Each structure stands twice: as C-alpha cells, then as structure tokens.
C-alpha cells in the first residue's frame, strides 16, 4: 500500500459514513484553503484555542492565520510560548489542555472510523482524550486505511521516519513513538463535538 496516495471515493465515502455513525461531524473539502475557511466558521469568537505540532495545519495556512491575531480567538499556544519562566510555562501548558477547541490531525484513520495519534511528549493527548469539548481534525484522505492493523503499520513504517527527520531538521532532536492513542469513539452521554475535515489533497505525513 502506498501511504502517500489519496484515498478513493469509495474509501472516503466509507469513512465518512463510519465517522457520522459514531457521532462525529464530517466535512469534505477539496483543498487546504477550504479547510481553513471551514475552521474559521466552526470556531466561535472569544473561544480559547490550542493546537498540536502539525504539518497539516501549517500547510493549510492555519498557523499563519493564528499568529496574525485577526481571528478573535484566545490563542493559548501564544501564551505558553510567551512565558520565559520554566515553571510558569509548564503551568500554562497544563492549563491549555482545557482549551475550548483543540486542532490537529491524525496519523491514520480507518474506514471504520477509528483513528491513531502518536506523540513523543503526549502534550496534546489530554485535549484529545477528554479535556477539550471541541476537537477539529484536519485530515488528508491519504491517511485513510482499511483497518487498524494497517493504521499502525502506516504510523510505524511511514509516518515515524518522516516525523523523526522533520524533528531533527527543526529541533536537532529525535522524536519517538512514546505514546500511541487508538481512538474508537465516545460514550453516548458525551456532549463533545468532534469535527473531521477530510481534505482531498496531499497534506502532512
């Protein structure tokens, strides 16, 4: 399987129905600029936002838009980065896990609606697992795979080497698959809103 190929319409239709059946909100767009416009409509003014390190978010222009300050949101990522005191920064980072919205991507998404996210530090996982009431995942259709076994293979054989290379180039430090999250669904009583923006463009790893 070529993990860099966009998924077929049949596969995208399968995952769309599966995600909706689980209770997620699904948007399908053709390119990154449309994904960014969708994000602008989803996030309400005055809401706090946090994001993980994401090539996808960079490519669609979200990071630049966030830094512009033209959105009317509370940028918790900027607050964390602006703090020079290590202890205060750590406290702000913990508090940021309670953001109204968390944005990121996934490393693999199965046709059954399960998704995999790996992390070196796990800083983004509290948002995803429980804390943030609104999640927005921007996902290139190339990340869609038939089953969980192949999702793990995609992560280990394809994504990890690319992430490690990018980490060395940016931080001069290796990354690691220290925490791997398999997200299968939410309890029926949950009031969280989990949004998937499926993009028919080659984005991210």
TrEMBL record:
<dbReference type="Pfam" id="PF02589">
    <property type="entry name" value="LUD_dom"/>
</dbReference>
<feature type="domain" description="LUD">
    <location>
        <begin position="13"/>
        <end position="166"/>
    </location>
</feature>
<protein>
    <recommendedName>
        <fullName>LUD domain-containing protein</fullName>
    </recommendedName>
</protein>
<dbReference type="InterPro" id="IPR024185">
    <property type="entry name" value="FTHF_cligase-like_sf"/>
</dbReference>
<dbReference type="InterPro" id="IPR003741">
    <property type="entry name" value="LUD_dom"/>
</dbReference>
